[in-house]
Amino acid sequence: MKILQTHNLKKYYGTGENQVKALDGVSLTVERGEFLAVVGTSGSGKSTLLHMLGGLDRPTSGKVIVDDKDISSLKKDALCIFRRRKIGFVFQSYNLVPVLNVYENIVLPVELDGNQADRLYVDRIVQILGLEEKLHSLPSQLSGGQQQRVAIARALASRPSILLADEPTGNLDSRTSQDVLGLLKATGERFGQTIVMITHNEEIAQMADRILRIEDGKIVEGGDGDV
Predict the structure, then answer these.
(1) 179 in a domain, yes or no?
(2) Using 50, 70 and 90 to split pLDDT, how confident is the model at 227?
(3) What is the pTM of this model?
(4) Which of 205, 181, 171, 204 is nearest to 96 (CA)?
(5) Which of 16, 37, 56, 157 has the smallest C-beta neighbourhood within 10 Å, fewest atoms?
(6) Close Cβ partners of 52 (under 8 Å, ≥ 6 residues apart)
(7) Domain range for residue 163?
(8) At residue 226, does pLDDT exceed 70?
């Protein structure tokens, strides 16, 4: 069952000779529960694609459909609510709030939406990610790998349909990267999440169900026509 689609997605910057085609007609389908890795060199358009999929940026033209809803047509406030409830984000820089402890960081998105966190569900995430002993610690008291685990737990706390990860192991050493990605994949499978991960690391990408390669704003391998 399809959970995510793009139709002829384009994102252009500038005009005339100075125009940059960050995305140039990307059509993509992601199945529910799939773990997709998007790889490409710097400037290939992979991060732009992720931002479009998550509603963090607007396309020049084309559509992004998440759970049967065209998010590219939503107004700003409606898009913000939809994104908060349906999409989880994991970034390379962790983006944890330094004055909040681990537990407070994990449940923050749920509380910002005016809801109470499901403590049993959060406890299951915390246990899988091995954070039980760190719930009262501040981000500054954690290693990079631990901070990334907290970021993953936070992204999962609101039970999103889709998890978007932008170079989630970019600041981690090789062994920690493998550990974190293994946990990301395990939690995705356990809770039925669809994962789209941007990475330049070929070894990390091999952990995904499918690898999509993008160059010069176009899909060159792993697209719908290659499945």
Answers:
(1) yes
(2) very low
(3) 0.88
(4) 171
(5) 16
(6) 6, 9, 11, 23, 58, 59, 64, 72
(7) 30-47+83-226
(8) no
Residues 194, 184 contacting (CB under 8 angstroms): no
Count up the domains in the chain and report the number.
1
In a domain, 42, yes or no: yes
pLDDT tens-digit map of 112-160 = 888 888 899 999 889 888 899 999 999 999 998 899 889 989 998 888 8
What own/partner pairs with CB < 8 Å and gap ≥ 24 does 132-137 have? 134/102, 135/101, 135/102, 135/103, 136/101, 136/102, 136/103, 137/101, 137/102
Q: In what order do the strands lie in the sheet with 218-221?
A: 87-91, 162-166, 194-199, 35-39, 210-215, 218-221
Average pLDDT score, the chain: 89
- 158 in a structural domain: yes
The domain that contains 107 carries what CATH number?
A: 3.40.50.300
Longest dimension (CA), the chain: 56
